[in-house]
Amino acid sequence: MMKWIVVILVHSLLTPNLINVRGNTGMVHRRFEYKYSFKPPYLAQKDNTIPFWEYGGNAIASSESVRVAPSLRSQKGAVWTKTKTAFEWWEIDISFRVSGRGRIGADGLAIWFTTERGDYNGEVFGSSDKWTGLGIFFDSFDNDNKHNNPYIMAVINDGTRHFDHQNDGGSQALAGCLRDFRNKPFPTRARIEYYQNVLTVLFHSGMTNNEQDYEMCLRAENVVLPKAGYYGISAATGGLADDHDVFHFLTTSLHPPGQLDQIGQVPQADNDKLSQEYKEYQKKLEDEKEKYKKEHPDEQKDEFDDWFESDNQRELRQIWQAQSTTTEVLRDLSKKLDEVIGRQERTLGLLSASGGAIQQGGSPPPPGQHQQQYTGDAIRRHEVDALLNTNNILTQSMRDLKTQLNDLNQRTELLIGNQKAGGSVGGGYDMQGLVAEMRDGLNTVKQGVLGVQARVNQPQGLNSCPTTKCVGLTPFLVALAVQLVIILGYNIYKDAKGNQSKKFY
Ligand SMILES: [Ca+2]
Ligand SMILES: [Ca+2]
Fold first, then answer.
1. How much distance in Å is there from the Cα of 482 to the middle of ligand 1?
2. Rounded CA separation 83/363 (Å)
3. Disulfide bond: is it a keyword of this entry (predicted)?
């Protein structure tokens, strides 16, 4: 959002400037100058020439771009127009990319407008020093170590001065701006306008591919450039090296209103020569196309056919687009319908679960609780089953307990009946006598055990039976245990009977 605001602001600021630059006299006439331009496709022909341009040094041209200087050490290259311009005011738009693996690159790229063509292997960013005219330099490397590079600047020379590389042209620059133009996601662009002695350089940072994202880099008034000149692009690398690629160079001549007629005043000889050259170029292009068609008979289709469409194709495309839109809407509707069905199924599931619980659980819950089941956590089927099982088990246990109680009751009644039939309470047994009897019995047993122990502890030789009658140890202990069990059993039975009697009477 901010970006757009900035773009709109910059645009609104720049537009009046440009109008002022062009004067208040009305519309400026613009004319594209193809003889001072290049762009893809077919930027370079099959013979590697660029129509209307010459290049040299380490420059390499392809159908898509010109690599003015490759990313190798100490490379220099340049590309220059073949002919001098024939218009006074102009605008050029250049799309380029300076890219390299290093955090710092070198040396930079220059755009020229000079009275003579420069070198292809010169000292100033790949071309000639002591030039006459304008140089716009994209200086990557910070020679004076002032941390102010990459830098864009305009330098005008009258053919006498050396470029001050050591100071990055600091004192010679007409104007400039600090902009990083290296390694951008999209090609960087510059628009250089020279109109009525005002030089303007706009810069596109290459952060977007929006055509409108230009910003002002420099503006200088009262600039006097040669009335006619050559355009050139050059680049150089040093110890550090970037690729310097140019994708297009588009020249537009600018004509103040009412002066367009004067275009005809271009020397007739030059005009004829250029027209002839253009015709030759067109013919060459057609020949190349024919040749290609002959060499590739299978690919009869013209490469520009893709750019056009017949009425039928347009109609089909429109129908297809309408259908695509309809399909999209239907898909959305279907998705929403699925959602609704899903919700409905979920609700039905809840209803049936709670209904089952009501059927199996007996009485239905009150209306409030019923409502809560729908809105809150639902009781699930297996939980209901578990509850029912527990309930059944509890019922069964209760039933068993009831049976056992009945049994107990019957037995008790039977016992009471027996007691009544058997006579008085107490049963005629003397408790005191029994205890005394048991104490005597226990004493006898104790003495017996002690006797056995004494015998066991006797030496082997004395272990033989004396003259009296002798019983074995195991039968004796068994007899003892049986006696004890009988006595204790009788005693417990007696106690129980006594208690019952006390309870009921
Ligand atoms: Ca420099
Ligand atoms: Ca510097």
1. 124
2. 106
3. yes
**Residue 114: strand pairing partners:** 133, 230
Separation between Cα atoms, residue 53 and residue 233, nearest integer Å: 11
What residues have their beta carbon closer than 5 A to ion ligand 1? 139, 141, 143, 168
CA of 170 to the centre of ligand 1 (A): 10
Among all bound ligands, the one having the nearest atom to the CA of 163 is 1
Cis amide bond preceding 107, omega within 30: yes
Per-residue pLDDT of 238-290, as tens digits, reads 999 999 999 999 999 999 988 765 555 556 677 788 888 888 888 888 888 88
Structure tokens at 339: 């959602």
Which whole-number Å values give the CA distances from 466 to 152, 456, 461, 471, in the listed order?
138, 14, 12, 11
Q: How far is the CA of 252 from the centre of ligand 1 (A)?
A: 30
Spans of all domains in the chain: 2-265, 267-300, 313-379, 380-420
Measured distance CA(50)–CA(477) in Å, rounded: 131
Average pLDDT (301-311) is: 58
Whole-number percent of the chain with pLDDT over 90: 44
Any idea which ligand is nearest the CA of 110? 1
- C-alpha gyration radius of the chain: 58
Cross-strand bridge partners of residue 95: 189, 248
Between the CA of 243 and the centroid of ligand 2 the distance, in Å, is: 20
Helix (H) or strand (E) holding 215: strand 214-220
Q: Cβ(135)–Cβ(169) under 8 Å?
A: no
d(CA 143, ligand 1 centre) in Å: 5
Residue with tokens 């272990």: 463
Please tell me the CATH code under which domain 2-265 is placed: 2.60.120.200
pLDDT above 50 (res 427): no
Task: Tell me how far apart the alpha carbons of residues 145 and 149 are, in angstroms, rounded to a whole number.
Answer: 9
b/e map of 70-91 (b: 16 or more CB within 10 Å)? bbeeebbbbbbbebbbbbbbbb
